[in-house]
Structures are given as C-alpha cells and as structure tokens.
Amino acid sequence: MRRSGDAALSAAGVEAVEGYDRYLRERHDLSEPTLRNYLSDLRLFAAWCERSWSEGREEEHDFDPAMVTTPTLTEYRSRLRTVLGLKPATINRHLASLKRYFGWAVEEGIVARDPAKAVKLVPSVPKPPRHLDDREEAALVAAVAKYGTPRDRALIITALHTGLRAEELCGLRPEHVAIARRSGHIKVWGKRGKYREVPLNSTAREALSSYIEESLPAGARCLFPSKKGLGDSDGARGLAPITPRALRYIVARYARLAGVEDVSPHDLRHRFGYRMAKSVPLHRLAQLMGHDSLDTTMLYVRGTKADLQAAVEGIAWA
To answer: What are phi and psi of 225, to 5 degrees?
Structure first.
C-alpha cells in the first residue's frame, strides 16, 4: 500500500525508515536538522528503489535493504548527479547518510554485507577561500581603529599584511620583529617548526613599531599578550600570549562592528594570499605563506566568481 507524497513508500519502506529513526533518537544526540537530513535522504533513496525495482513489473516491489547492492547505490549516485543535477557536496551528503544507514544495518543483522562501503564519494574541486573585498577590509580596519585597543589594531593589520596563520600570530615574541627605516621582517616558526622570514611592508611596520614603542608592556615575552595575565607577581613577564580561540573572538568582534559577516583569522590570511597572488610568482607566494606544496598555494590563484565573470566579459562582443 502506497503513501502519497514526493517520497511515497510502501509499508515496508516506512517501517525501515521508522526503525532507523528510533535508533538515531535513542542512541545519538543529534540536532533536529541533522536528524531530518538523515531520514529524508534514506526516505528518498528507498522510494527510488521501490520505483526502479517495480518498473516493467506487474507487481510493485517494496523496499528491502537486503536487496540493495553496490551497483544499486552507484546508479543512484549517477541519478543524483545527472537527473537531479545536485552539486557534489549535496550528493556526498546523500551518500554519507546512506553509508551511515547501511553501516547500522550490518550491525543490526538487517543486511549481511555493507553495499555502501565500496561506493566512492563524488570528487569536487575545492572551493576557493572566502575573499574579503576592498570595502570589507576597509570597514574592518576602520572598526578596530575606532573601537579597538592598540594591541588589537596591530594584530589585525599584521594579519592582513603578513598572511600569518593564527597559531603563528599568537606565538610571536617582540624579538621576532625586526624593523628598519625602509624594511622589516618577522621571524616565523610555522608548521613542523619550519622557519621563514616574512617581510613587513610600510603599513605593517608603522602599526607594529607604534604598538611596540607605546603600548606593549616593557619586558613582555609575547608580542600580543592576553588581557588575562598569569598573575601580578611577575609583571609583564607573566603575561600569557593570546590563544587562537581568543584571536577568533577578537576578529569576529570587530567584523560585527564593521558590519562584515562571517570573518575568521584564516580569512585575513586568505585576503593576504589572494592579493599577493596577483603580483608575485607562485613559488614566492608559497614561501611567504609557508606552504610545503605548490598545490596548496594554487588555492589563491583560483579566481572568485567575480574574477571569472570579469574574465569572460572581456571577450564579449558588446
């Protein structure tokens, strides 16, 4: 007996979905949206199975997990891509839901073997990093200049003009900064202790020199100390550096004040990498960013949607 609706199911199909529903609710602390996704993905797959199994037959065939094979799932994957036109991320969400379901079905003895185990996810091109545009960067800098402390101003500007990772920024010490009249650099120990020197432009030099001379507590061991010291007995030497978590909070705070949505310290690194990719060779950008592989650096060479649109507009007839 069929139910009406987009994902009409037989009584057996409904029972299969409801059994999985009970398991998820009893054994896992899932949010309602996540739970709905799991069940909706399974329901759609089960309904498709019933339709495809019944085509050309006089009798309708109810959903039976034991009848699902690996080719069944690969055919469904193809349908999601070619017929429904879903994006790779959405297809992979459906497949992940089914992999989870059949993993449970094996544990419960509903099926003898897992048909989803061998099914591969759809490969996708990594999305280019989020790019702050000129207006957003200007708004962020204006917000920290108006509402922020000298430390926070120096921190944001250093992040935007050096592309350092959050951990690298937090680990900086005053002696890591070398500033001359027309040049400067920061000594950085990055991933796996790899050393590099990142040059400082005039904007970064001005921000850091003013901060170090006027606002950094004398004798501080860290360049960007937390407001929460380790105690008063050791004075400035007892100040602890800010943590990556605190840095995320700082960036998010000024982004909100600037009216810029969803900004993280990593977005400031991306902003630097994207701007530098327009003017320096790939191998030099990799050196600045501290990348071991040029494949990672290529992420900054990929254009945004606006870049690509502008590129194709360049060959338009009118």
So the answer is: -75, 150
